[in-house]
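About this split. The held-out portion is used to measure sequence recovery: a designer receives only the structure tokens and must propose an amino acid at every position. Recovery is the fraction of positions where the proposal matches the reference. Here is one held-out target exactly as it appears in the evaluation file.
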């Protein structure tokens, strides 16, 4: 499910079954030399979030992406975000990112870090294969949390 009006109606009716929130964290580079890589990472992460949502529809909700710039204090941003999200009814919260800095931030929930793969110039079949491979890497981390 996605964080939109129609899916939210369904979520509110069936929230006892939808126990997981996936939160994409997007680093927005403002230095011109890094903007292309930043946009490519965003493209990859959002495609993966969409694919994850399709595979686990009825179990997870994908939040709108939270964007930040390099000058933002990640520890404080993570604390505020996780504090606000902890007030929701979700039992499991996963923060999905291509920014390795998040792996050193202490916060409730689980950070799912993946290296960015530039998929923007791939044909659809190769892109699908890459997303499937990435999901296979995420699956053990998801199921580990779900069985707790």
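Reference sequence for scoring:
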């Amino acid at each position: 499910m996605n964080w939109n009006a129609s899916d939210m109606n369904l979520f509110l009716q069936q929230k006892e079954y939808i126990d997981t929130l996936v939160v994409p964290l997007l680093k927005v580079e403002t230095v011109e030399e890094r903007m292309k890589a930043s946009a490519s990472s965003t493209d990859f992460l959002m495609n993966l979030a969409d694919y994850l949502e399709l595979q686990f529809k009825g179990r997870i909700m994908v939040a709108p992406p939270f964007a930040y710039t390099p000058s933002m204090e990640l520890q404080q941003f993570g604390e505020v975000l996780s504090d606000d999200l902890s007030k929701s009814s979700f039992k499991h919260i996963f923060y999905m990112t291509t920014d390795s800095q998040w792996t050193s931030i202490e916060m409730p929930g689980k950070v799912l870090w993946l290296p960015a793969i530039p998929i923007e110039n791939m044909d659809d079949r190769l892109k699908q294969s890459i997303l499937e491979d990435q999901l296979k890497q995420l699956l053990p981390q998801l199921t580990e949390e779900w069985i707790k």
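Annotator remark: The CA atoms of residues 20 and 92 lie 5 Å apart.
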